[in-house]
Amino acid sequence: MSIYPVIETERLVLRAPTADDIAAMHAIVSAPETGRFLGLADNPATHFERFARNAGSWMLYGYGSFMARLHGSEELIGSVGLFHSWRGLGADFDNSAEAGWILHRDHAGQGLAAEAMRAILGWFDATHGPRRIVCMIGVGNTASMRLAAKLGFSELREAELPDGDRVTLLERHP
Prior knowledge:
This protein is an alpha+beta fold. It has a single domain, classed as 3-Layer(aba) Sandwich (Aminopeptidase), CATH 3.40.630.30. The chain has five helices and eight strands. Strands 1-2-3-4-5-6-8-7 form an eight-stranded mixed sheet, sandwiched between helices. Helix 1 packs across helix 3. The relative contact order is 0.16. The model has no long low-confidence stretch (mean pLDDT 89).
């Protein structure tokens, strides 16, 4: 039995990541349609660092990203959730719970990320107490900006990542 939660929604089963998920998530983020706002998503070393950071958040903070599957399927369709982050973007963003969602291109635009994030935010608030949460979205990613607004995030500021990509930083207050 896992010490990490499993969350079920109407269409999804959400569980903590395992090493078996690394390759499947790399395939998802390496697809140009999915990875275009993720920066260096096709680099296996960068992918592993990101995956390990998100998975390690479970051990260090008691929350992290969930791996998403449709009910009745073993196929990984994405990663959604909250993880603890330090990105070097400033005191208004670092050392915070950070929300993020990535779905396989075949499952985007169906409301699955919203369904998953609502369930995860409810679990997080009940388990860790309501608190400020941040998220980072690539400039031009209008679909994720719409979802962030639906989830209660508001724009904090724009920032530039070390690789030169521009992102919008957002926050959500309890």
